[in-house]
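FORM 12-B: Structure-to-Sequence Request
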């Protein structure tokens, strides 16, 4: 039996080799039409609407859109009644042919927000809907919707994060490390805060707030537009890391404060100041016990509210603030022995100040509660089994909550729930299974813009009424992909792992093929869900002779709190074991999977997992491509790493166990074929991570390959680099599998 099985395996392998000839060198290969188009169209996403905003009268929807092969976005208006779209403003009309310029601070902020577009990347709409605020090259422009008149505001250079006041008469922003404001009636700028500096900024969110907390602003208007709350972020004691353009060392370097585990964080405090300037009232809380200022909310009807966390994020306090004195009052405390997940859209105050909505996982899964003004529990709106993912809007007038999610983590839909009622799914017309979520809901709740995609449809933007009636669709000018991926979904193994597989479109039944595991596997992100856009590149890879598999194991979100928290103090065991167990279970259902030829690839945490697989389990994984991997968790940032691994002074074993260097340095252990890819200007996972791993492997006598992406950050927006990168990835797997 053993000899017969070996003979069958040999014949199958020879059959595959006959179908897939050895890869030609890049210089001899014809350019790949799909890969070039995929790169030039920014993954077929350029030309699709982004950042829609609904005017208060629900007659117009504003949105940004680029051309199919451009990264430069312009501003459009969609007329709900007629379904027509017109272009309102272009960057060219403002710059008159001049090149757009960005400050180092603005580039870093966009990197934190994962924004790689140019032109208008964001905009603000006044509360009455009459004015639009756009920024370009660090300057501000106001568009009067009724006339189309564009006014340049007389600010100094380098404006960051501008926002209208609630009354629409003023705009606040940050420049020169301080908060400024400008009155639209006079077009005169005034400095609000004083004394900001490079190491003690006023009004800017610190690195970990932007990168890990999802808090991108450092100032907040009071509802009456008379005060501004702002952060002072002191990075004097924070370690500084420098990035140098290795292709142009004559340019010097850019230095950033980057807090590594166990070391000093920025010291952040919150102040309240009149918009006319003057004395700051500093908010008082136990900053020694709760050093992280995670969330600030100053909403109509509610008090100034702050959420603060302890260093290890096992406990957080929600506090109301008296802005006149800075005194705080405890509303509630959340605790979890592993960690407390942070949801930036909470608290959501009722406009009469009588209550607020709150997010918790204390009962084993995500819940939305209604809390009285004193913090006491009133009722539960969304229970743990509903699959809540995101608060999309709360309509105060009829007490209706809109959210997105689903009990099945591979799907997501639009839901609404009225006070005291049960969640109702809103039908959008997109065939299930799908991934849908609202991207804009009008203040009065009469109009919704959703983004919707399925396994066979690219993202579309239907315009809906609350009952699901479709009244239009925001128009796309994007190039459409030349094929539709064919993705099959499974639930496998005793743990019930979600898995998906993509086969070559010309695959012959019964022929075993090598497997590529597309991996992330870390906290905060799942990879197995229904969507066409994310699987285009995987189908292209599959058509070159592979089976592309995605697997979500323990440690990923959207299951239970216990499922996600399995990785506490250990990134390197359950995460990898579950990928192997899930793939083996999937192979029992898909006999074409060749478990003797398994490759793995991923980026960021997925890059870490890919390198971990090559180092720790070369008996199972034969080849790996690791993009921007975190190599030693002592070199990543505090807020993310300490949440999962604890403080290194208290849990050194967690860092030792989870470090790739632990598995790289022993010369006696084998290694799978490994290609490391990393942007040299990455300011999230710094390039030295990959250099440290490469050096350790070199000293241990372990061969590997290295592809530095010169001048690239954690994102890879350059079309030519994207094309060449995936050509190299394909070559690597064809060579080694």
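FORM 12-B RESPONSE
SEQUENCE OUT:
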């Amino acid at each position: 039996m053993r000899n017969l099985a070996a003979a069958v395996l040999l014949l199958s392998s020879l059959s595959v080799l006959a179908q897939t000839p050895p890869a030609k060198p890049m210089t001899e290969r014809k350019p790949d039409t799909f890969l070039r188009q995929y790169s030039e169209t920014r993954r077929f996403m350029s030309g699709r609407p982004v950042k829609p905003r609904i005017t208060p009268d629900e007659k117009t929807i504003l949105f940004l859109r680029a051309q199919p092969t451009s990264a430069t976005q312009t501003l459009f208006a969609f007329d709900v009644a007629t379904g027509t779209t017109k272009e309102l403003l272009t960057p060219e009309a403002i710059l008159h042919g001049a090149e757009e310029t960005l400050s180092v601070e603005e580039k870093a902020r966009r990197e934190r927000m994962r924004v790689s577009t140019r032109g208008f990347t964001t905009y603000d709409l006044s509360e009455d809907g009459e004015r639009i605020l756009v920024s370009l090259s660090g300057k501000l422009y106001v568009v009067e919707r009724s006339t189309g008149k564009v006014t340049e505001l007389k600010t100094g250079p380098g404006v960051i994060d501008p926002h209208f006041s609630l009354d629409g008469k003023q705009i606040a922003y940050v420049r020169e490390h301080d908060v400024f404001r400008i009155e639209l009636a006079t077009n005169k700028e005034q400095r609000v805060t004083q004394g900001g500096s490079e190491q003690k900024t006023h009004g800017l969110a610190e690195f970990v707030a932007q990168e890990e907390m999802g808090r991108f602003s450092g100032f907040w208007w009071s509802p009456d537009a008379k005060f501004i709350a702002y952060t002072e972020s002191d990075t004097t004691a924070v370690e500084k890391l420098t990035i140098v353009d290795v292709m142009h060392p004559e340019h010097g370097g850019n230095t950033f404060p980057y807090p590594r585990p166990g070391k000093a964080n920025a010291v952040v405090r919150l102040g309240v100041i009149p918009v006319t300037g003057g004395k700051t009232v500093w908010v008082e809380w136990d900053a020694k016990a709760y050093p992280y200022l995670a969330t600030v909310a100053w909403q109509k009807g509610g008090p100034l509210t702050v959420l603060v966390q302890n260093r290890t994020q096992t406990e957080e306090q929600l506090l109301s603030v008296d802005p006149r004195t800075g005194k705080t009052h405890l509303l509630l405390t959340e605790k979890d022995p592993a960690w407390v997940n942070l949801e930036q859209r909470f608290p959501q105050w009722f406009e009469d100040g009588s209550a607020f909505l709150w997010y918790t996982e204390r009962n084993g899964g995500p819940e939305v509660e209604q809390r009285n003004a004193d913090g006491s529990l009133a009722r539960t709106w969304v229970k743990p089994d509903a699959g809540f993912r995101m608060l999309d809007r709360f309509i105060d007038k009829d007490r209706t909550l809109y959210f997105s999610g689903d009990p099945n983590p591979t799907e997501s839909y639009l839901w609404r729930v009225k006070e005291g009622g049960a969640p109702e799914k809103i039908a959008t017309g997109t065939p299930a299974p799908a991934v849908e979520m609202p991207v804009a809901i009008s203040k009065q709740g009469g109009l919704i813009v959703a983004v919707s995609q399925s396994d066979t449809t690219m993202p579309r933007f239907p315009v809906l009424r609350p009952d699901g009636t479709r009244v239009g669709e925001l128009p796309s000018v994007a190039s459409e992909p030349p094929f539709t991926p064919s993705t099959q979904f499974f639930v496998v193994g005793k743990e019930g792992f979600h898995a998906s597989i993509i086969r070559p479109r010309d695959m012959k039944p019964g022929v075993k093929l090598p497997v590529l595991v597309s991996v992330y596997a870390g906290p905060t992100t799942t990879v197995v869900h229904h969507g066409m856009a994310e699987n285009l590149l995987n189908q292209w890879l599959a058509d070159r002779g592979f089976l592309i598999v995605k697997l979500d194991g323990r440690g990923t979100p959207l299951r239970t709190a216990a499922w996600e928290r399995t990785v506490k103090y250990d990134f390197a065991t359950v995460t990898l074991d579950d990928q192997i167990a899930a793939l083996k279970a999937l192979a029992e259902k898909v006999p074409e999977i060749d478990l003797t030829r398994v490759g793995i690839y991923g980026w960021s945490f997925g890059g870490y997992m890919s390198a971990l697989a090559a180092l720790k389990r070369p008996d199972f994984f034969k080849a790996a491509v690791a993009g921007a991997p975190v190599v030693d968790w002592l070199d990543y940032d505090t807020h993310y790493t300490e949440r999962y691994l604890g403080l290194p002074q208290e849990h050194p074993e967690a860092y030792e166990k989870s470090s790739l260097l632990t598995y790289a340095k022993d010369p006696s252990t084998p290694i799978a074929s490994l290609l490391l890819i990393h942007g040299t200007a990455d300011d999230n996972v710094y390039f030295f991570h990959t250099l440290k791993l490469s050096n350790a492997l070199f000293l241990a006598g372990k061969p590997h390959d290295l592809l530095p992406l010169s001048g690239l950050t954690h994102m890879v927006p350059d079309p030519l680099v994207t094309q060449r990168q995936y050509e190299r990835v394909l070559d690597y797997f064809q060579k080694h599998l």
